[in-house]
Amino acid sequence: MSLELKSSSKSFGGEQRIYAHASAETKTAMRFGLYLPPGEGPFPALFWLSGLTCTEENFIAKAGAQRLAAALGLVIVAPDTSPRGPDVPDDPDGAYDFGLGAGFYVDAAEAPWSAHYRMRSYVEKELYALVLSEFPVAEGRVGIFGHSMGGHGALTMALRDPARFRSVSAFAPIASPMNCPWGRKALAGYLGADESRWREYDACALIEDGARVADMLVDQGTADPFLEEQLKPALLVKACAAAGQPLALRRQEGYDHSYYFIASFVDDHLRWHHERLTA
Ligand SMILES: N[C@@H](CCC(=O)N[C@@H](CS)C(=O)NCC(=O)O)C(=O)O
């Protein structure tokens, strides 16, 4: 598997890099950001999953995670949010919430999406294996976090396989895609009408069906414009309470959905993961 280094910039003694490679899962070129802290490693690593409309660049440019990642010695991997390229179909109306920039971290089952939209397997299998084989990352010390659509991706990936992703947190996650317009559009489009197939892509349904992680940290801004209609953290609170699943949900007064919110609390998340990945 050949990796092409697209850029590398020194940051807090380490390097913020962007790579491209040919993905066997998506059958397209894929890009990801990778922060490499100073030192030799092996380091614990965090996967960051971004939200709707993002590429591999939003988190690395806006979250301000490099300073503490350097100090703690954390690798952070930030993939793009969908396959892209001339052969990749987009939402027929060009909407931002489906298709390009909106892969929803699923393996699509419906044509024409199924040919390329395989962000679940891309992240869980291909990129995970690539990062472990090509970079100084300590096996078994990998966590995952994300924002909005990516918060949904992080929660569902950790719940499905807590041994692969040993720590999990989220900013303003889509708590239950089966129960909001963004999620219902994506799951119906990528997976088809049979809702029983949607459950493995819904954090609340996974918890109801018995999936567990050791604990999870979720930050949610109270001034987030998507809170009531799309994100619905109360559904996650309810599912966790009913199942005895530990959840640290923090309602952050006055914060919106933006990267200004993420940057305000990203250090707490890095520390949360570092503690668990080095225990
Ligand atoms: N109304 C927004 C919805 C998309 C949105 O808020 N995206 C969030 C994730 S759900 C984001 O991270 N945007 C990119 C950024 O803020 O850098 C738009 O049309 O761009």
CATH superfamily: Alpha/Beta hydrolase fold, catalytic domain
Report the order of strands and helices: EEEEHHEHEHEHHEHHEH
Question: Helix content range of the residues, please?
Answer: 25-40%
Any idea of the CATH topology? Answer: Rossmann fold
Number of strands: 9
Which architecture would the CATH scheme give at its second level? Answer: 3-Layer(aba) Sandwich
Poorly predicted tracts of residues: none
The small molecules bound here are: glutathione
Main β-sheet, spatial strand arrangement: 1-2-3-5-4-6-7-8-9
Largest sheet: 9 strands, mixed
Structural class: alpha/beta
Distance between the termini: 32 Å
Mean pLDDT: 98
What is the name of the CATH class? Alpha Beta
Rg over CA atoms, rounded to whole Å, is 17 Å
| Count of helical stretches | 9
What sort of overall outline do the alpha carbons produce when their principal axes are compared?
globular
Beta-strand content bin? 15-25%
Summed up, the domain count is 1
Organism: Amphiplicatus metriothermophilus
Protein name: S-formylglutathione hydrolase
Function: Serine hydrolase involved in the detoxification of formaldehyde.
EC number: 3.1.2.12
Question: Care to describe what's here?
Answer:
The chain is α/β, with parallel strands linked by helices. The protein has a single domain (3-277), classed as Alpha/Beta hydrolase fold, catalytic domain (Rossmann fold), CATH 3.40.50.1820. Helix content is 33%, strand content 23%. The chain has 9 helices and 9 strands. The protein has helices spanning 57-62, 66-72, 119-134, 149-160, 181-191, 203-208, 227-231, 233-243, 259-277; strands spanning 3-11, 14-22, 29-36, 43-49, 75-79, 137-147, 168-171, 217-221, 248-252. It has a 9-stranded mixed sheet, sandwiched between helices. Strand 1 and strand 2 form a beta hairpin. The two termini are 32 Å apart. The model has no long low-confidence stretch (mean pLDDT 98). Bound molecules: glutathione (GSH). Glutathione binds next to helix 1.
